[in-house]
Design goal:
heterodimer, A: 401 residues, alpha/beta, D-Maltodextrin-Binding Protein, domain 2, 2 domains, 10 strands, 41% helix, B: 303 residues, mainly alpha, two-stranded antiparallel sheet, 70% helix
Chain lengths: 401, 303
Amino acid sequence: MNRPLPEDPMIRSLIAQAKRAQVSRRAMLAGTGAGATALALAACAPASTELSPAEDNSANDPNLNWANWPLYIDEDEDGNYPTLVRFQEETGITVNYLISVDDNNSYFATVRDQLALGQDIGADTVCLTDWMVNRWIQLGFTQELNKANIPNADNLIPSLQNPAFDPGRVHSLPWQGGFAGIAYNVERTGEVRTVSDLWRADLNGRVTVLSEMRDTIGLIMMEQGTRIDADFTSDQFNAALDVLREQVEAGQIRNVRGNSYSEDLVNEDSLAAIGWSGDITLLNLEAGYEKWKFILPETGATLWNDNFMIPIGSTRKANAEKLIDYYYNPEVAAEVAAWVNYVTPVNGAYDAALAIDPVLAENKLIFPDDETLAGVQVFRGLSAQEENEYQAAFQAILLGA
Amino acid sequence: MAFTAFSGTAQAAEPAVRKRSPIALLLLLPGMFYLILFFVTPFFSLIITSLQEPDPLLFGEFNNAFNWQNYVIVIETYWEQGLRSIGFAALATLFALLIGYPLAYFIAITLRPFPLLQALGLVLVIAPFFISFLLRTLAWKQIFATEGPVAGILSSVGILEPGTAITGTAFSVVFGLTYNFIPFMVLPIYSILATFDLRLIEAGNDLYGSPATTFRTVTLPLSAVGVISGTLLTFIPAVGDYINASRDFLGSADTTMIGNVIEANFLVLSNFPAAAALSLLLMALILVLVGFYVKRSGTEDLL
């Protein structure tokens, strides 16, 4: 300060005091560091191990946030969701449909801190894949479903009623399911019947596989004769991993991708791929003819389901249950299945679909018959340690590390 | 060493304006508060996370510890991806400079008599920012597709064997990085050259300097500040970039960069300590490299 101090003695003494109190740079830095460490520690503080569900306020709060994957519900040309619009008219509940799940792992990484504290994650119901549901249930991140509010849950097909990760479906109910199998471009390559056909010389560098470990490794394991729904060993898993590593390193597999594998098929970077059933149906629809053929290898294909769950911090559980109940109505389920082309878990949807679109109802990839289901397996639940070990080994191949 | 590179000159310039006043402190308060909350706290949180050890019972949970071996493990596992990141970023910076400098020179000096064209040139440099970075990178993936236009032309003139993959190679990743960061190179150089006194070039000619000599001894040294800030603005984000090298964009398993490794550890493997340790190592590495570069180039007053 170059200007003279004010006349008022009170203010003079205040300024003098302030000057004396001025902190050195070092003290300032130390203080900042200590404060920040305290803040950071507070932020990392471990959550209480016992989580209790948030209190249900549905009666006073006619809203619902639903987090789901892209292209996973019926949509009209104006971008509305017809079945959801009807649900809102029928119940008076305003549904905020969030397309916020692009990947099980990254969605989990985004919300896990709030879940661990029992807080609202901005979604009152979310649809995730079996193995991720397993993790949520084990960590206590879900609320129990009140089946009295979901009478239509009786329509769940028997084969999905008692999965290992949720016997009796206490915490979860399937939304849609699908198969991972092999898709190939019929115009550019000969018939592909098995996983090892993908390693053919004419497909060198033109094969894409999924970055979803259970699907890619699952298909390879089944071809090696390992049952993925039974207690396979690490050695059996690693044998499949070796095949993948070898083919990636040799350049036979051009790339390992998530949802974007379908772009590779369209621009013909890839002529064959391990992919998901519904996508290929949609691609052919866009192409206008059956340009890609989707097959379930004879040695076995994987079956997975995405399941409704109610996160621990949601205060709109009853609303979410109403929504689930609505989608377990066979007519509604058939309407959704006709649009998304995935497997519906609802009994009676087949008969409803026969009335809407008989050709669709005969599509074994949407309404699988017993024979189709006999040829597919669900990847068994992994223990935390196995999950850790297998995923690390799989990612090492993807990262080239 | 890196730290002194940043602090030396700032201190020297300070005494003239140094004023001690409670009002200054008061005015600093919001900024300090912001920095503490949004930079210092996450930074310390990152340090704490990087030293955590896995919970023996609960998957995906980690306990505070002093597990410095995390750093050793990530260096051992991912040193290759780290070196590759520096190499790719350095190449991209070099190419961006080779393309960006003439462009900036053209807009700032050649077009100076035509203000309208100059403005148009600048708009063209900035225009790509109006379209999402992700969309543009995806567009390159389509352009470089095996059956796409570039591969088609190259293979028809016999440079490329038909069916060769362009995406997923070092070329496509470095290309993507260069393309995406060129504006960050052009703009700082342009801003220096835009106010460059053309009479200095005339003076150089009057003193019998050839155009090349004049450029080397007059224009280039005077625009060095722009070149250095351009290279820093390109290099620093390019090292940590994880879009171009991502499997879903222009990269593959052979071109993984450190950003992809951090992403995988954080989002897929839930190995937060490894991701945090890698982030801190990346920060330290960039700080050392940049500090060294700034010291060597002798333009410390830049920072």
